[in-house]
């Protein structure tokens, strides 16, 4: 007496089980992801702004490609329009040129005065020297460390701690140098700290990478002025690695607890980057022994520890 | 085994290295300088290791995964051992699930790998902190997303390699 339905094929049963498991996993995963997003938003409110910036960063290049034909057509139409408006445009430009010339004369005066003052103060200005010009050869686009690789190394005169500067702004600094390659610590790496200055307010600070497309401006010192979106951030030259005045980015989110900077240049964007020698000579002398005037134990001395360097003593003249 | 067969067998030994070589090729492919600022490159190397741990568990043991992970650490400039440990753990997890679940569909594989990749993304942060370079794990979720999306492509690529290898296998035993 066979009253039970005929057993289905084991593969069908297995498929059903798999689908049930899949649906359970998917629903559980969705709920967990939602909870995680909520928790992240609760703990770190700026997550949403970061995601927004990321979304625009993704969409913008896509659109630049999609829009290329449209832009071309618009350019052709604009060229036609330029012919019709050429005379009035030339008049306008001449007027602007007069104004600009007047400003240039005043600026020349100021420049001469500045040179005189610098000579008076005996200001010594280090010069920027380009060591190599190269392209970014490879990069770690999917890793917690944001580094890039150059196809030039110590053979081309590259050493550690050299600034790498792109056409539009700072890219990073060299981290490890091989014979034919160098690793560049990008600005967006969590280890990267760039001494910067806010061009408008003169506040100094650090641009800190965090493995996101944007940097964080921390340790801001100087006048208590609020930043506004669009403030330009340039390197300050402190620390001696990065030369002063190199664009780092612009403030896009002037939050009081940590303004967000968008990079001036896409670190891995096409185009060439120059490797310059460090802005100031980097001291290569390592401190010998303890620098405080604490006595060195006899046991340590017998094992070859150097004598203590007294804080008050002058460095040996050599 | 005739000398001719023996020679052909020696010449076909490189086939045992194909899984490792394919994973390393994917690893190098990961270094393409994408002009984007977030870590959105899918973790092709890890996925290659997982695929081969699934297709040919014998040819992708955890120690080999450890070596490939070490190479990844070197190439990515991370503290040595982060990827290596996680690659080995991931391979072990794949082996265990293969034993527990037996044969299953590709969709199940996908979900399984999603979980493994998520675990990888979540464990990278603590391991980096252990290595003295604490980082945030959140940006790695982007890589996780892209990796999950790229999984079918990697599977297809590796399966094609495997099929091509099987089709051209020397028949020295019974042929």
Overall pLDDT level of chain B: 82
Q: Which structural class do you get from the secondary structure elements of chain B?
A: mainly alpha
Rg of chain A (CA only):
30 Å
> What shape does the CA trace of chain A take?
extended
Strand order of the main beta sheet of chain A, please?
1-2-5-4-3-12
Unreliable sequence segments of chain A? 30-35, 48-64
What's the Cα radius of gyration of chain B? Answer: 18 Å
Number of strands of chain A: 12
Estimate the strand proportion of chain B.
under 5%
Order of helices and strands of chain B: HHHHHHH
Largest sheet features of chain B: none
Distance N terminus to C terminus of chain B? Answer: 12 Å
**Residue share in helix of chain A:** 25-40%
Structural features, described:
The complex is a heterodimer of chains A (318) and B (175). Chain A is an alpha+beta fold and 318 residues long. Chain A is built from 5 helices and 12 strands. A 6-stranded antiparallel barrel of chain A has the order 1-2-5-4-3-12. Chain A has a 6-stranded antiparallel barrel with strand order 6-7-8-11-10-9. By secondary structure, chain B is mainly alpha-helical. Chain B is 70% helix and 0% strand. The N and C termini of chain B lie close together (12 Å). The mean pLDDT of chain B is 82. Classes of the chains: A alpha+beta (318), B mainly alpha (175). The interface between A and B is large, with 45 and 39 residues.
Task: Present the secondary structure layout.
The complex is a heterodimer of chains A (318) and B (175).
Chain A: H1 10-43, H2 47-66, H3 68-84, H4 86-121, E1 130-139, E2 147-150, E3 163-165, E4 170-177, E5 182-186, E6 193-198, E7 204-208, E8 214-221, E9 232-235, E10 247-253, E11 260-263, E12 272-276, H5 298-302
Antiparallel strand pairs in A: 1-2, 1-12, 2-5, 3-4, 3-12, 4-5, 6-7, 6-9, 7-8, 8-11, 9-10, 10-11
Chain B: H1 3-11, H2 18-29, H3 44-55, H4 62-76, H5 82-101, H6 106-130, H7 138-167
Helix pairs in contact in B: 2-3, 2-4, 3-5, 3-7, 4-5, 5-6, 6-7
